[in-house]
């Protein structure tokens, strides 16, 4: 009888634990997106754009830390298509990153389903097409990850929030832009700037005395943008998944591919105010506006527009240095952000990457350390997993700049899981650069002028550098980052300036160990697409 009681007790405990485990599974969010061409009058005449479910921009994804995201993409374009999830780390699932190094594109008239988790992430992100120049035609949207209710945030919860997608825009359309690039021509200055797909007319309404969260992402393809609100200040609270020290700004530079979150208190007179986005480092300077409206306002906004910086490079670099990590705040987990002491970790590899613009076979190409990247017909990830020869060679690119003419190639840098790596982006050109690394975030430890050398390390911020996934590199200058490669996979290190990426300014970082374990990386998903030399087993 005693044994039976113990047995029943154990069965009961197991049942309780089983029920707890089932209930504790992270939520699923399901989306079905139909991608089509459509006609919209974005500027002064109708043009073809890329729509998601008939919308331009596409729908925002609103989720919570650790949610499982299922996106069924129906490609009704007449060409292959992929979406990449800018800044989503894809823990253990580089199969879902949505770039040509990890995925075969979705064929026209076909459907493919992304399945991934927002594991241990909070903050403001975006998504956009990664194939060809589709990003210049639309198909982009916001991707916002709220903190779990059990994790505190380091500021009072705002009464509401707004998502603002700021971008540049070309009348020519993505197909014409691609044709010009294929002919070896550089992109011109954009024709205009947009806020949420509109050149004018966007508005955001709130109540006097209340504080609102603004999630701002630069989803353009070429232009750094300064953002400001007439008569109001911006309190920066988060950058690309990291809570920041809450500095107050009159305006903020948001470079291509970057995202920020600011708090705005409606503490001025009840009327309308201009929201302003203006281009940085372009001639001419482009400007667009939206409206910040107070509930009950009958007073339109008044000129002049608030003044913003234009060509001031050092103004922007100085501002960038003020963006620092909030060491005591929690991020997605309950431990403080400052508990990871990145400044005490030994660097095992240094990469110094110099971008160049060169002619190859008589046409403009962009290169990194003398290699202008060309996508093979077989995704690198599939070639690596299935041991397919002839697709790429590890470490074919030099890890420091070269003085030889650039050549076409497929650059893959080999690293081991948990390597701690220093990367220096050296920009000897007179245009601003923006670099993105998939699969992780990195610490921006320094910005500097001219040419980097090892003595510059004494200037590194080894305490509270902000952790983010996209960083700017100023003209004839350098930016240094530290990154812990703790996510196994094949990760795209690319120019976020899309014409440069399309014409070769990118490479991949292979993060690898010799153990196949679901704890470090999932197997290929059952719906994996195969192409090139990769055949379904």
From TrEMBL:
Domain Plastocyanin-like residue range list: 35-148, 161-296, 378-515
Keyword terms of this UniProt record: Glycoprotein, Signal
GO MF entry, a single one: copper ion binding
The UniProt record lists the keyword Lipid biosynthesis: no
Residues making up the signal peptide according to the UniProt record: 1-24
This protein's record includes keyword Glycoprotein: yes
Family, as annotated: Belongs to the multicopper oxidase family.
Protein name: L-ascorbate oxidase homolog
Lineage: Eukaryota, Viridiplantae, Streptophyta, Embryophyta, Tracheophyta
């Amino acid at each position: 009888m005693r044994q039976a009681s113990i047995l029943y007790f154990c069965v009961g405990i197991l049942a309780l634990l089983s029920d707890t485990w089932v209930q504790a599974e992270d939520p699923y969010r399901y989306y079905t997106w139909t991608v089509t061409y459509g006609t919209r009058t974005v500027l002064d005449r109708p043009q073809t754009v890329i729509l998601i479910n008939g919308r331009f921009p596409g729908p925002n994804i609103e989720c919570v830390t650790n949610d499982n995201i299922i996106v069924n993409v129906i490609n009704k374009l007449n060409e292959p298509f992929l979406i990449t999830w800018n800044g989503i780390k894809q823990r253990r699932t580089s199969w879902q990153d949505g770039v040509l190094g990890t995925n075969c594109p979705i064929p026209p008239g076909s459907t493919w389903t992304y399945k991934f988790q927002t594991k241990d992430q909070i903050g403001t992100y975006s998504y956009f097409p990664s194939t060809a120049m589709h990003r210049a035609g639309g198909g982009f949207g916001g991707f916002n990850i709220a903190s779990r209710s059990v994790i505190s945030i380091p500021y009072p919860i705002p009464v509401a929030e707004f998502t603002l997608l700021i971008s540049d825009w070309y009348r020519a359309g993505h197909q014409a832009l691609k044709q010009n690039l294929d002919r070896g021509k550089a992109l011109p200055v954009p024709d205009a700037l947009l806020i949420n797909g509109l050149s004018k007319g966007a508005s955001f309404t709130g109540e006097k005395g209340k504080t609102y969260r603004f999630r701002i992402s630069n989803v353009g393809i070429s232009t750094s943008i300064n953002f400001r609100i007439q008569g109001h200040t911006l309190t920066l609270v988060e950058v690309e998944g990291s809570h920041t020290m809450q500095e107050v700004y009159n305006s903020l530079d948001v470079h291509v591919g970057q995202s920020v979150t600011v708090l705005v208190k409606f503490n001025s007179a009840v009327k309308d105010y201009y929201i302003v986005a203006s281009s940085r480092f372009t001639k001419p300077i482009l400007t667009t506006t939206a409206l910040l409206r107070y509930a009950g306002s009958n007073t339109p906004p008044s000129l002049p527009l608030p003044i913003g910086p234009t060509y001031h490079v050092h103004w922007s670099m100085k501002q960038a240095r003020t963006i620092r990590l909030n060491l005591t705040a929690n991020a997605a987990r309950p431990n403080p952000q400052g508990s990871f002491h990145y400044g005490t970790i030994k660097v095992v590899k240094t990469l110094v990457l110099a971008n160049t613009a060169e002619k190859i076979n008589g046409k403009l190409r962009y290169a990194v350390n003398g290699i202008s990247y060309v996508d093979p017909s077989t995704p690198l990830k599939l070639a690596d997993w299935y041991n397919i020869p002839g697709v790429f060679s590890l470490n074919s690119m030099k890890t420091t700049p070269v003085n030889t003419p650039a050549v076409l190639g497929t650059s893959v840098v080999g690293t081991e899981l948990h390597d701690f790596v220093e990367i220096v982006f050296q920009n000897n050109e007179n245009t601003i650069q923006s670099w993105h690394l998939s699969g992780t975030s990195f610490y921006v430890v320094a910005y500097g002028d001219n040419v980097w050398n090892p003595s510059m390390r004494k200037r590194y911020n080894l305490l509270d550098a902000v952790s983010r996934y996209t960083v700017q590199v100023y003209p004839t200058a350098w930016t240094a980052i530290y990154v812990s490669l703790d996510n196994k996979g094949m990760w795209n290190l690319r120019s976020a300036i899309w014409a440069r990426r399309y014409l070769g300014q990118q490479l991949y970082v292979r993060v690898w160990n010799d153990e196949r374990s679901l704890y470090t990386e999932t197997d290929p998903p059952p719906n994996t697409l195969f192409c090139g030399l990769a055949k379904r087993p």
